[in-house]
């Protein structure tokens, strides 16, 4: 029986810290953001879809997607964001389902890291959902630092996702990530021990 655990959290909540640790422990993790990046490479399905929707204004000189420009454009216009999301989500869902099914042939226990797990209704894919949880203040300051954003820009991006408060109600397990790295990883380690009994 294959057991699949979904990992989610808000933007800048520390999901990649948790997934890096899981990989170091020898577990397979399908990373939705990584899959999206691959699909957005020139020639990829998402790249083609975005190009045909928004035109060459979203490209850098070398022909690759200008992610910061695209991000600023989408987060500044709710209609464009909705249109782009609809196009992208179908392509991403199909690709993720394919990778999940392939991994399920060789692994009996693995993880999928999906930032928008609840927003895009992926709940029924998983046996359990782990939420990497932080306070609003921690999330805001980490996002501003990580992406060099103003407070207003960071708040817009956080507001585009379901609030962590809502996510907490839906998750099976909370991994508290406000403190130091050791505390966070100790929680994950304990969860793994419980799971693998």
Give an account of the 3D structure.
The structure is a single chain. With 197 residues, the protein is an alpha/beta fold. The protein has 9 helices and 5 strands. It is 54% helix and 13% strand. The longest helix has 27 residues, at 78-104. The relative contact order is 0.21.
Q: Which descriptors apply to this entry?
A:
single chain; 197 residues; alpha/beta; five-stranded parallel beta sheet; 5 strands; 13% strand; globular
What is shown here, in short?
By secondary structure, the protein is of the alpha/beta class. The protein has helices at 15-24, 32-39, 45-54, 67-75, 78-104, 136-147, 151-159, 164-170, 181-195, and strands spanning 3-9, 29-31, 109-113, 128-133, 173-176. Helices cover 54% and strands 13% of the residues.
Class inferred from helices and paired strands: alpha/beta
Helical segment count: 9
Helical content (DSSP H or I, runs of 4+)? 40-55%
Oligomer: single chain
Whole-Å distance between the termini?
15 Å
**Low-pLDDT segments, ≥5 res:** none
**Main sheet specs:** 5 strands, parallel
The count of β-strands is 5
SSE order? EHEHHHHEEHHHEH
Rg over alpha carbons: 17 Å
In one word, what is the shape? globular
Query: Strand order of the main beta sheet, please?
Result: 2-3-1-4-5
Instruction: Assess the beta-strand content as a share of residues.
Output: 5-15%
| Mean pLDDT metric | 92
């Amino acid at each position: 029986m294959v057991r699949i655990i979904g990992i989610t959290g808000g933007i800048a909540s520390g999901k990649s810290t948790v997934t890096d640790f899981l990989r170091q422990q020898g577990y397979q993790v399908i990373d939705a953001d990584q899959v999206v990046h691959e699909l957005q490479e020139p020639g990829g399905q998402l790249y083609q879809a975005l190009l045909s929707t928004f035109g060459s204004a979203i490209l850098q000189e070398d022909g690759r997607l200008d992610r910061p420009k695209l991000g600023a454009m989408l987060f500044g216009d709710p209609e464009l964001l909705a249109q782009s999301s609809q196009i992208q989500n179908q392509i991403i869902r199909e690709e993720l389902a394919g990778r999940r099914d392939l991994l399920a042939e060789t692994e009996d226990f693995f993880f999928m890291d999906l930032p928008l797990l609840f927003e895009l209704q992926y709940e029924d894919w998983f046996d359990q959902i782990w939420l990497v949880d932080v306070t609003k203040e921690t999330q805001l300051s980490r996002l501003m630092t990580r992406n060099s954003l103003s407070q207003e820009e960071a708040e817009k991006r956080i507001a585009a996702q379901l609030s962590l408060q809502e996510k907490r109600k839906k998750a099976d397990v909370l991994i508290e990530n406000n403190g130091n790295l050791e505390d966070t990883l100790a929680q994950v380690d304990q969860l793994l021990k419980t799971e693998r009994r």
